[in-house]
TrEMBL record:
<feature type="domain" description="Phosphofructokinase">
    <location>
        <begin position="5"/>
        <end position="301"/>
    </location>
</feature>
<dbReference type="InterPro" id="IPR035966">
    <property type="entry name" value="PKF_sf"/>
</dbReference>
<dbReference type="GO" id="GO:0046872">
    <property type="term" value="F:metal ion binding"/>
</dbReference>
<dbReference type="GO" id="GO:0016208">
    <property type="term" value="F:AMP binding"/>
</dbReference>
<dbReference type="GO" id="GO:0030388">
    <property type="term" value="P:fructose 1,6-bisphosphate metabolic process"/>
</dbReference>
<keyword id="KW-0963">Cytoplasm</keyword>
<dbReference type="InterPro" id="IPR015912">
    <property type="entry name" value="Phosphofructokinase_CS"/>
</dbReference>
<dbReference type="GO" id="GO:0042802">
    <property type="term" value="F:identical protein binding"/>
</dbReference>
<keyword id="KW-0324">Glycolysis</keyword>
<dbReference type="GO" id="GO:0003872">
    <property type="term" value="F:6-phosphofructokinase activity"/>
</dbReference>
<dbReference type="GO" id="GO:0006002">
    <property type="term" value="P:fructose 6-phosphate metabolic process"/>
</dbReference>
<comment type="subunit">
    <text>Homodimer or homotetramer.</text>
</comment>
<feature type="binding site" description="in other chain">
    <location>
        <begin position="129"/>
        <end position="131"/>
    </location>
    <ligand>
        <name>substrate</name>
    </ligand>
</feature>
<feature type="binding site">
    <location>
        <position position="106"/>
    </location>
    <ligand>
        <name>Mg(2+)</name>
    </ligand>
</feature>
<keyword id="KW-0479">Metal-binding</keyword>
<comment type="pathway">
    <text>Carbohydrate degradation; glycolysis; D-glyceraldehyde 3-phosphate and glycerone phosphate from D-glucose: step 3/4.</text>
</comment>
<dbReference type="GO" id="GO:0005524">
    <property type="term" value="F:ATP binding"/>
</dbReference>
Amino acid sequence: MGAKKIGVLTGGGDCPGLNAVIRGIVRKGVQEYDYDFTGFRDGWRGPLEGDTVPLDIPAVRGILPRGGTILGSSRTNPFKEENGIRRIKENLAKYEIDSLIAIGGEDTLGVAARLTDEYGIPVVGVPKTIDNDLSATDYTFGFDTAVGIATEAIDRLHTTAESHMRVLVVEVMGRHAGWIALHSGLAGGANVILIPEQRFDVEQVCAWVTSRFKASYAPIVVVAEGAMPKDGDMVLKDQSLDSFGHVRLSGVGEWLAKEIEKRTGKEARTTVLGHVQRGGTPSAFDRWLATRFGLHAIEAVRDGDFGKMVALRGTDIVRVPIAEATAKLKTVDPELYKEVGVFFG
Ligand code: F6P
């Protein structure tokens, strides 16, 4: 019997640190356990269509500081594809894959949990999302980088807002959870922070904006893309759905700036940070966390501990059942939001 062969894939929205995980997995797996690796391209599309890339130590050299993922990513949902699970099983057999490591967020890991629990395909999960909204782990890698980028943008927007004495609305990512908005808004000294967990009152936002002008400062309003007004629906530019049924967010920032202008008579502009938050080199913290996740994921494979996800608890990396970890989103506690509210207005 040859060496064990492990398949690795990255799914969902990309995130700084993915390459650091891949490198950690391959370096430890080859050096300590003599494993062979196969990279599957573009998330679950790779095993579904048998699209592979070689994954060995030369392939992971120099990738630690690189953003994106050398394996590519997609939001392919095999449960939505004809004979999806049968095709995955056939391809795993064809490439003689003993087990898989899936690096992804809620959706990619949701598939991983079902593949292990319902279809007996051995998968270990690694949590990833800049939104930091996976329960069971204190932090996901990519979040720290995104917060750093958003904070730098807010710092820069302060000076231009003050030069023109106008309102600057900054739309950041955060589909269901306002972690990026909360952390970057606090770190950047925003005057209003709006998160998906709590519907906002436009009148209240305008009152904060006005009080900030009264203090002779220009207001910065940070709004998570998933935040919603108290009266009305989610503001969207685009209604299309991905294969996990998610709408493409963005639009609330533009909408809010118009409302503020209309209601306060003050000039307002919007900056949508978008994918800038996801691109480029990971922060030192994200490289550290992603590397440790990689090292612990390969250990879980060695232990045959499938259906588990690695997670950060304090400074320890632990293993938790994927199904449990993806069942509930980690959202911002109302008390924490209230605490930050002292800086509003
Ligand atoms: O899920 C992470 C995330 O960053 C969300 O905050 C955002 O809505 C989504 O990705 C956008 O991803 P894409 O443009 O790749 O579909």
